[in-house]
UniProtKB/TrEMBL annotation:
Domain VOC, residue spans: 6-120
One Pfam family recorded for the sequence: Glyoxalase
Name of the molecule in the record: VOC domain-containing protein
Span of the signal peptide: none
Domain of life: Bacteria
PROSITE patterns, alphabetized: VOC
Organism: Chryseolinea serpens
Length: 122
């Protein structure tokens, strides 16, 4: 079974997300979406993308983790993976959510970092 197939997103808390996004855009030309390319077809866009997004410092989206960041990993079959992780004793957080852009589930690693798992609709 495939588990993680890529990095779907990097999320972190910020004092002023709007201002921080503008700074990164101006000085580093970093936007909110990194669109990856296939090295074998450099002129064609690959379906994979990584989201980069600061959140307000008081967000509860990373709960129950108290860490100032959360990683999002792309996965192939979210429900099957969560079932295996549950059997392996991994802490599952909340219920699977389905959106037009994919399914989401959450787990905690041994240090209490919340990890978002995303099965995208490519």
């Amino acid at each position: 079974m495939k588990r993680v197939t890529g990095i779907g997103g990097v999320f972190f808390k910020s004092e002023d997300p709007k201002q921080l996004k503008a700074w990164y855009q101006k000085h580093l030309e970093v936007g909110e979406v990194f669109q990856w390319t296939d090295l074998n077809q450099p002129d064609a866009k690959a379906p994979a993308q990584t989201i980069w997004s600061p959140f307000k410092k008081d967000t509860t989206y990373f709960a129950p983790s108290e860490k100032p960041f959360m990683l999002n990993y792309r996965v192939h079959d979210l429900r099957a993976l969560l079932a295996v992780l549950r059997e392996e004793g991994v802490t599952i957080v909340g219920e699977v959510e389905e959106h037009p852009y994919g399914k989401f589930g959450w787990i905690l690693d041994p240090e209490g970092n919340k990890i978002e798992l995303w099965e995208p609709i490519d």
